[in-house]
């Protein structure tokens, strides 16, 4: 089945006149001939420009010819020549010179590990180009290559196995230039910014589509320069087109706003990875106010495969964007396992028929014969091994490798579709989903935006459950700050951290375990959980724990608490504990505020939790600590079990001291706290030292100063209104943070609703802990109480050392801590924001900072 090109009916061309070829280039059928014809036609026009220098077509042609003669004189005919490629003028000259010499070009990336570089040189048998060698006089003859002669020996990334050398012919770059004219409207007047590394296929294609059409190629080395100043350079150079990967697009444009639109930019294209609707919208919201967005796909073996253009008025469907209509001289078929054509909309293997695809694999005739099939009309059929489908418009959607698809519970699941659903979540900045065929399960690695929220795996699974069937939801989800990438910018799957190891699956036993299994599955977003699997490692955070405990207490009528879950984090152990508590009415069921989070040896560490948070909120950080000392967390009285809450930092400190001394009667003590808990820790440390005890450095985890407290610490006078607010603890920050990221700027509630809320809170806050409330309401009440406690706090001077660990979004003046302590104060900045710093993936960074404070030498 040959796809129908819907360009005229569905996809608009870029703005501008119909593009005609340059004079003298219509008979150029090789990369070498095409370059010479373009250079002759463009003469003194600028061919290549970097931030430091530029070169004209005429001067570039002279340098290319000189170097081509040197290569001809010093390299054996037919032997590949390897060139170390940077994003600079010298590298482009060297690439063109090798192409014009008739020798196959091998691209060496400077970011390649040394062992991989050695493998490429050994497998290709290439001679490394010495650019410092003297130029051979002009009498040396350069043999003109033919259209089917090898031009480039392009090695695949090796992400799915051993790198393969793909042999590209001289006529393929000419076809790419044709694609540049037909789909991207490339013309001599264009100033094309190539942000793709020239040492891999996408960069090589972008070079052909721009330079071989007479456009000025603007080179900016993102990997060395980063994106700082890039947008301003585009403006200064009046760039008309830009070409990059989706991952670079996200990291770059995420720093920009609508005020950063580049008026001259008519087209922005991406390749190398799937492009999603959010990518197009991000471009439209920043640099590409009125231009065309193009996602195009290709592969080492086929070159350009398809193009999909999005003018400003074209709508975008959710999920991964189809790669579009087939490229020039590319006929696409979708077939089943027997090679039979499949109907429109049906998923199957993608086959490509063309006269402009690779010759085969270097020194591998068996693999070449299996994948490249000669056709009677002189074209070649390539079996891509990719899954895809064509829609009624002839647009191709790629769905990943056929060997990536996996059957789960009898259903065929394509990881790329699951990946698209994860990317649609507002938190997600990047994602990759992998399949384990042996265990029939999916693993998702998700990079999140901590500016919105760092979700737990449980939250991610809950959100996915709204759009995916249960068997498509990954069992294992690893939350990261960013995905590891190789030198080509592709996800480095070998470097993805493995999910936590899980024990062999054992089904629940007995009625209590069966009931717990139901609650845990519901809250953690899993279909099945083994009785020996850990609640936290399954993705359960503090909120999930609170919900689970509330469900257990309500449905089983059993008195349960955080201490039980911390000590017994599996269904089997937790069932034993709650059954024991029911029989014995143990002390743990009385609402303890001291919760053991980690067993160990030596002096214990005591950490005070934040306002409204259960002790288990600190579990991810505690588990990442390198110390083997026992760790206890102290949570507010009444937050979990009925009991009157403390209403001042001093009262909370007194109660915490009683908890601490019940475990460790005398010092030296190691104390710390998160958020409100940091102020409590400072207070209790001051009280302990006043009583003759000693304390190690107090660990303060991102405790934020209320303006009233900040003025008090500085010794500034407070106005009447400030004093009234401090007494009442007024604050507008009473809503739960936006856990979905869907509403980053929620509308202000109507005045009547706000008044009702304030009246209700005015009643609930003074009685906090006396009545058990629904989990979200309980959080708000204790959060409001904690804010009031900070506003009213009158700190005493603490003379010991303090280690302040701050999230990167912390706005406070560091001198405030120096005024609260006459001892040495050290500061440690960590990744994440106030909330995400104690959650994955940032918890490990926070734990490292705590270890640094714990191990600091005594002053």
Automatic annotation (TrEMBL):
It holds the Pfam family AMP-binding. This is Peptide synthetase. Gene3D superfamilies: 3.30.300.30, ACP-like (1.10.1200.10), alpha/beta hydrolase (3.40.50.1820), N-terminal domain of ligase-like (3.40.50.12780). Residues 1-24, 724-750 are annotated as: Disordered. Its cofactor is pantetheine 4'-phosphate. GO terms for cellular component: cytoplasm. It comes from the Bacteria. One of its GO terms (molecular function) is phosphopantetheine binding. Keywords: Phosphopantetheine, Phosphoprotein. Residues 507-582 form the Carrier domain. One of its GO terms (biological process) is amino acid activation for nonribosomal peptide biosynthetic process.
